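B., you asked whether I could sanity-check this one before it goes into the benchmark set. Here's the sequence:
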Amino acid sequence: MDSNADIVRRGYAAFESGNIPEFKSLLAEDVEWEIPREFPYGGVFRGPDAVVELLATIPSYYASQHVEITDFDAFGDELVIVRGRHYGEVKNGTAYDVGFASFFTVRDGRVVRFREYVDPGKAIALLDSMRTEQ
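And here's what the prediction gave me:
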């Protein structure tokens, strides 16, 4: 049986490779996915279909977008924390490089909760540049 960290790794790999059925199979039916509300696409999304729809919209805000994961850490029976950075360019050409920590709760082999936190200073600068596009 996969560890909780392995399940989260599989989710990242499936999504990155475009294997959406595999990605969705790792989400609980009642999954709750939360992106900081400061982002134009932020909020709380419930259910695998809502999560996939959200993730499909995010690239429309960026000219290029990359994720570099630096750490996967498992804590206790359910918690996996992933740390790294998002970097690339928003549509107006402004470069960004924002650190993040994502908290996954994994239960019975599926993600039941996701909450992402970002470096607030860098996120504010990124958000300001996104606002000037509108």
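One thing to flag: The two ends are 48 Å apart (CA to CA). Otherwise nothing jumped out at me.
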